[in-house]
Amino acid sequence: MTQQSLNILVLHGPNLNLLGQREPGIYGLKTLGGINQLLQSLAEELGVDLSIEQSNHEGVLVDLIQSTFEVFDGLLINPAAYTHTSVAIRDAIAAVAIPTVEVHLSNIHQREAFRHHSYIAPVAIGQISGFGAESYRLGLQALVTHLRTT
Ligand code: CA2
Fold first, then answer.
1. Selected catalytic residue, list 27, 82, 119, 136
2. 27 catalytic, yes or no?
3. 81 CB near ligand 1 (under 6 Å)
4. What are the residue boundaries of the structural domains of the chain, listed by start?
5. Whose CB has fewer CB within 10 Å in the chain, the N or C terminal residue?
6. How many angstroms separate the CA atoms of 73 and 79, rounded?
Protein backbone atom coordinates (compact mmCIF):
# COMPACT_ATOMS: atom_id res chain seq x y z
CA MET A 1 0.00 0.00 0.00
CA THR A 2 1.42 3.45 -0.89
CA GLN A 3 1.73 6.00 1.90
CA GLN A 4 -0.03 9.33 1.29
CA SER A 5 2.30 12.35 1.36
CA LEU A 6 1.95 14.72 4.31
CA ASN A 7 0.44 18.15 3.54
CA ILE A 8 1.92 20.98 5.53
CA LEU A 9 0.83 24.62 5.66
CA VAL A 10 3.53 27.22 6.32
CA LEU A 11 2.27 30.61 7.54
CA HIS A 12 4.32 33.78 7.81
CA GLY A 13 2.81 36.63 9.84
CA PRO A 14 2.91 40.41 9.53
CA ASN A 15 5.90 42.31 8.14
CA LEU A 16 7.84 39.15 7.29
CA ASN A 17 7.39 40.16 3.62
CA LEU A 18 10.01 42.85 4.41
CA LEU A 19 12.73 40.32 5.27
CA GLY A 20 16.08 41.03 3.72
CA GLN A 21 15.14 44.66 3.06
CA ARG A 22 15.07 46.13 6.61
CA GLU A 23 16.65 45.38 10.03
CA PRO A 24 19.14 42.75 8.76
CA GLY A 25 20.93 42.97 12.14
CA ILE A 26 17.94 41.34 13.84
CA TYR A 27 16.30 39.28 11.11
CA GLY A 28 19.18 38.48 8.74
CA LEU A 29 19.74 39.08 5.05
CA LYS A 30 17.59 36.31 3.64
CA THR A 31 14.40 37.34 1.90
CA LEU A 32 11.10 35.56 2.53
CA GLY A 33 11.44 34.06 -0.95
CA GLY A 34 14.86 32.70 0.07
CA ILE A 35 13.40 31.10 3.21
CA ASN A 36 10.57 29.60 1.17
CA GLN A 37 13.11 28.09 -1.25
CA LEU A 38 15.01 26.53 1.67
CA LEU A 39 11.75 25.07 2.96
CA GLN A 40 10.68 23.74 -0.44
CA SER A 41 13.99 21.95 -0.94
CA LEU A 42 13.84 20.42 2.56
CA ALA A 43 10.23 19.39 1.87
CA GLU A 44 11.39 17.60 -1.28
CA GLU A 45 14.10 15.75 0.69
CA LEU A 46 11.55 14.78 3.33
CA GLY A 47 8.90 13.82 0.77
CA VAL A 48 6.19 16.18 2.04
CA ASP A 49 3.99 18.77 0.26
CA LEU A 50 4.11 22.41 1.36
CA SER A 51 1.71 25.30 0.85
CA ILE A 52 3.18 28.64 1.89
CA GLU A 53 1.30 31.87 2.67
CA GLN A 54 2.16 35.26 4.19
CA SER A 55 -0.32 37.81 5.50
CA ASN A 56 -0.18 41.08 7.39
CA HIS A 57 -3.78 40.58 8.56
CA GLU A 58 -4.87 38.67 11.65
CA GLY A 59 -8.27 37.65 10.21
CA VAL A 60 -6.67 36.32 7.03
CA LEU A 61 -4.30 34.19 9.14
CA VAL A 62 -7.30 32.92 11.16
CA ASP A 63 -9.12 32.00 7.91
CA LEU A 64 -6.02 30.17 6.63
CA ILE A 65 -5.70 28.23 9.89
CA GLN A 66 -9.40 27.29 9.75
CA SER A 67 -8.84 26.07 6.16
CA THR A 68 -6.38 23.45 7.41
CA PHE A 69 -9.22 21.36 8.88
CA GLU A 70 -9.16 17.92 7.24
CA VAL A 71 -6.89 19.28 4.46
CA PHE A 72 -3.49 19.73 6.09
CA ASP A 73 -1.65 17.42 8.47
CA GLY A 74 0.53 20.02 10.15
CA LEU A 75 1.12 23.76 10.53
CA LEU A 76 4.48 25.56 10.66
CA ILE A 77 3.89 29.16 11.72
CA ASN A 78 5.86 32.29 12.43
CA PRO A 79 3.04 34.43 13.83
CA ALA A 80 5.47 37.40 14.07
CA ALA A 81 4.04 40.23 16.23
CA TYR A 82 0.72 38.34 16.61
CA THR A 83 2.66 35.83 18.73
CA HIS A 84 2.44 38.30 21.57
CA THR A 85 -1.10 39.60 21.06
CA SER A 86 -3.40 37.18 19.26
CA VAL A 87 -5.94 35.17 21.20
CA ALA A 88 -7.76 34.76 17.84
CA ILE A 89 -4.83 32.89 16.23
CA ARG A 90 -4.35 30.76 19.33
CA ASP A 91 -8.09 29.88 19.39
CA ALA A 92 -8.06 28.98 15.67
CA ILE A 93 -5.13 26.57 16.16
CA ALA A 94 -6.82 25.04 19.21
CA ALA A 95 -10.13 24.73 17.31
CA VAL A 96 -8.71 22.85 14.32
CA ALA A 97 -6.41 20.92 16.66
CA ILE A 98 -3.70 20.67 14.00
CA PRO A 99 -0.16 19.74 15.12
CA THR A 100 1.65 23.09 15.06
CA VAL A 101 5.26 24.20 15.39
CA GLU A 102 5.92 27.87 16.21
CA VAL A 103 9.12 29.36 14.82
CA HIS A 104 10.95 32.65 15.22
CA LEU A 105 14.00 34.01 13.45
CA SER A 106 15.21 35.92 16.51
CA ASN A 107 15.47 34.62 20.06
CA ILE A 108 12.30 36.19 21.45
CA HIS A 109 13.37 35.37 25.03
CA GLN A 110 16.53 37.44 24.65
CA ARG A 111 14.65 40.52 23.40
CA GLU A 112 12.21 43.05 24.95
CA ALA A 113 10.03 41.71 27.80
CA PHE A 114 6.84 42.08 25.71
CA ARG A 115 8.21 39.48 23.28
CA HIS A 116 8.81 36.86 25.99
CA HIS A 117 5.19 35.76 26.17
CA SER A 118 3.65 33.73 23.35
CA TYR A 119 -0.12 33.13 23.10
CA ILE A 120 0.67 30.42 20.55
CA ALA A 121 3.17 28.30 22.52
CA PRO A 122 0.55 26.55 24.73
CA VAL A 123 -1.30 25.24 21.64
CA ALA A 124 1.87 24.27 19.73
CA ILE A 125 3.87 21.05 19.96
CA GLY A 126 6.93 23.21 20.45
CA GLN A 127 8.71 26.47 19.68
CA ILE A 128 12.02 27.09 17.88
CA SER A 129 13.47 30.55 18.29
CA GLY A 130 16.75 32.28 17.56
CA PHE A 131 18.35 30.40 14.65
CA GLY A 132 17.46 32.77 11.82
CA ALA A 133 16.24 31.03 8.67
CA GLU A 134 17.44 27.75 10.18
CA SER A 135 14.58 28.00 12.75
CA TYR A 136 12.17 27.26 9.89
CA ARG A 137 14.18 24.24 8.68
CA LEU A 138 14.46 22.87 12.21
CA GLY A 139 10.75 23.49 12.71
CA LEU A 140 9.76 21.65 9.53
CA GLN A 141 12.02 18.73 10.40
CA ALA A 142 10.55 18.51 13.92
CA LEU A 143 6.97 18.75 12.64
CA VAL A 144 7.47 15.99 10.06
CA THR A 145 9.17 13.73 12.63
CA HIS A 146 6.27 14.34 15.03
CA LEU A 147 3.67 13.55 12.35
CA ARG A 148 5.47 10.38 11.30
CA THR A 149 5.99 9.04 14.79
CA THR A 150 2.67 9.77 16.49
O1 CA2 B 1 11.91 36.64 15.36
C2 CA2 B 1 10.83 36.46 14.77
O3 CA2 B 1 10.69 35.66 13.85
C4 CA2 B 1 9.61 37.33 15.13
O5 CA2 B 1 8.45 36.52 15.00
C6 CA2 B 1 9.60 38.47 14.14
C7 CA2 B 1 8.51 39.49 14.44
C8 CA2 B 1 8.56 39.95 15.89
O9 CA2 B 1 7.46 40.80 16.16
C10 CA2 B 1 8.53 38.77 16.86
O11 CA2 B 1 8.64 39.28 18.16
C12 CA2 B 1 9.68 37.83 16.57
C13 CA2 B 1 8.67 40.71 13.54
C14 CA2 B 1 8.68 40.41 12.09
C15 CA2 B 1 9.01 41.68 11.37
O16 CA2 B 1 9.87 41.37 10.31
C17 CA2 B 1 10.58 42.38 9.78
C18 CA2 B 1 11.45 42.02 8.79
C19 CA2 B 1 12.24 42.99 8.21
C20 CA2 B 1 12.12 44.29 8.61
C21 CA2 B 1 11.23 44.65 9.59
C22 CA2 B 1 10.45 43.69 10.18
1. 27
2. yes
3. yes
4. 6-149
5. N
6. 18
Residue having the nearest C-alpha atom to atom 3 of ligand 1? 104
Q: Name the residue among 46, 21, 17, 67 with its Cα closest to residue 138.
A: 46
Pair 118, 108: CB distance under 8 Å: yes
**Share of the chain residues as helix, strand and coil, in percent rounded to the nearest 5:** 50, 15, 35
**Is 136 an annotated catalytic residue?**
no
pLDDT in tens, 90-133: 999 999 999 999 999 999 999 999 999 999 999 999 999 999 99
- What DSSP designation does 14 have? T
Question: What dotted CATH number matches 6-149?
Answer: 3.40.50.9100
Distance separating alpha carbons of residues 69 and 148, to the nearest angstrom: 18
80 lines ligand 1 (CB under 6 A): yes
- Å from CA of 84 to ligand 1 middle: 11
